[in-house]
Design a protein that fits this description.
- By secondary structure, this protein is α/β, with parallel strands linked by helices.
- A five-stranded parallel sheet has the order 2-3-4-1-5, with helices on both faces.
- α6 links the parallel β3 and β4.
């Protein structure tokens, strides 16, 4: 995977670092632009505890999604989300708004502010999961900074976040490799020494797409 590129991107890492003061960071770009690697680099430097949930298409179920989300939080605080986990065992399941409030309260009860990374959010199409996230975004969790990576713009209340200056966004144009970053990546992947003119030509041909350079 191109996401496995090892090129340091301190400028973008610093942008996310600054964004941790707001509620949400959104990283949106097609496959192969290094979204996951960039957030991983940032997570290794951030001073806050980081809970990481790597989403796949099997997580399109509200109970499954919340169970894995709680497990991610429990990876940093083993006693996290006791009320949410208790509600997931109920039949019938509480409504989405109630579950969102319970999750918010459980996170606010944690001893320190945390980062929750939802990686590959583009897999989520379930309306209940989307409603839950929108509830959390409408009423931000004071104790949590949410980071979303996605191949497409998520169906969430992004305009409201943007208007209220609660959002940091990185998109394709931000994640395109510079010539210096491309040269570093190519040096890792090939024993052939390229001239600066050749690197420039490759960056122009691929438009800075890491997977294209591979």
């Amino acid at each position: 995977r191109a996401d496995q590129m090892l090129v340091a991107r301190p400028g973008l890492v610093q942008r996310i670092q600054t964004s941790s003061r707001v509620d949400v960071t959104l990283v949106v770009a097609p496959a192969g632009y290094g979204k996951t690697t960039l957030v991983t680099q940032w997570a290794a430097e951030v001073e806050l505890p980081v809970a990481w949930f790597s989403i796949d298409e099997s997580d399109n179920d509200l109970v499954i999604f919340l169970s894995y989300l709680a497990a991610a939080l429990q990876s940093i605080y083993p006693d996290a989300c006791p009320n949410l986990v208790g509600q997931l065992d109920r039949s019938p399941l509480p409504d989405v708004a109630r579950l969102a409030v319970t999750l918010s309260n459980d996170v606010d009860a944690l001893p320190h502010r945390i980062v929750l990374v939802l990686d590959d959010y583009h897999w989520i199409t379930d309306p209940d999961v989307q409603r839950l996230l929108n509830e959390l975004l409408r009423h931000p969790v004071r104790n949590m900074h949410l980071v979303l990576t996605s191949r497409s713009q998520p169906d969430l209340a992004i305009p409201r976040l943007r208007t209220n200056h609660r959002l940091c966004e990185l998109h394709l144009q931000d994640l395109r490799l510079t010539e210096a970053e491309a040269a570093a990546l190519l040096a890792q992947r090939s024993s052939v020494i390229l001239t600066s003119t050749e690197v420039t030509a490759l960056v122009e041909r691929t438009e800075g797409w890491a997977a294209g350079l591979h």
